[in-house]
Amino acid sequence: MKIALLAVDSDYPNLALMKLSAYHKAHGDTVHWYNPFDRYDRLYMAKVFSFTPDYRYYITNVGEVVRGGTGYDIHSVLPGEVDRLQPDYSLYPGVADNMAYGFLTRGCPNHCRWCIVPQKEGGIRPYMDVDDIAVAGRDYLILMDNNILACGYGLAQIEKIVRRKYHVDFNQALDARLVTPEVARLLAKVRWMKRIRFGCDTPAQIAHCERAIELIRSCGYRGEFFLYCILMDFNESYRRISHWRKDKKVLPFAQPYRNIDNPHQRIPQWQTDMARWVNRKELFAKCSFEDFEARKGFFCREYFY
Ligand code: SF4
Question: What's the pTM?
Answer without folding.
Answer: 0.94
